[in-house]
Amino acid sequence: MKKNISLLVLLFVFAFALQAQTPAPKFTVLSKSPAAVAYYPNNFAHDRGDGPKKAGNTVYAKIVYFRPAKKEREVFGKLVPFNQVWRTGANENTEIKFYSDVVIQGKNIKAGTYSLFTIPTETDWTIILNSDLDHWGAFSYKMENDVARFKVPSKKTDAPIENFTIQFSKTDDKTALMQLTWDSTLVELPMGF
């Protein structure tokens, strides 16, 4: 009798354990171009504490973008054609948020969020701030929604950069460079905060 009760308890526990298992959800395939965020100042993400306006730690800009990889491909002029609007990364178009007004090449840009498009050429890039947000790629880009355009020279890097990268570099207390680099190309846009 004790044996039968023990067997019955064991079967009950086994049945309960089977019932408690939940099948794993089916997820979509992970992006081959991971998302990234760049802040100015660069250390803001780690030091922010209680939010964007914590004493002595103000954020001026934030960029959300996707980082495609070179993968032994020729990037500019091939993968990213010259003289065409590019989403400036992969997947959804890149977006930049200014937390306060900014001056770029003498143009006053109001605080807000903008799409960041570019037109690469062999010698320079046109960097575009556009009011359309939340789009996939540059397929629905509309020039009439451009807020501002800036032309900057392109430079060659010492070594190729595998993944497209955007970062900020402080030049002085009121100015930073937004740097975009991939493969062996670098462009820099000064911004006054």
Description:
With 193 residues, the chain is mainly β. It contains two helices and nine strands. A hairpin with a 2-residue loop joins strand 4 and strand 5. The mean pLDDT is 87.
Approximate helicity band: 10-25%
Mean pLDDT: 87
N-to-C order of helices and strands = HEHEEEEEEEE
Separation of termini?
83 Å
- What is the assembly state of the chains in this entry? single chain
User: Beta-strand level of the residues, as a percent range?
Assistant: 35-45%
Structural class: mainly beta
Sum up the overall morphology in one term: globular
Summarize the structure.
The chain is mainly beta. The protein is 12% helix and 44% strand. The longest helix has 19 residues, at 2-20.
What is this structure's SSE topology?
Blueprint lengths: L1 H19 L14 E6 L3 H4 L13 E6 L27 E5 L3 E3 L2 E3 L2 E9 L3 E7 L15 E27 L2 E18 L1
Antiparallel strand pairs: 1-2, 2-3, 3-6, 4-5, 6-7, 7-8, 8-9
What labels would you give this structure?
seven-stranded antiparallel sheet, mainly beta, two-stranded antiparallel ribbon, 12% helix, single chain
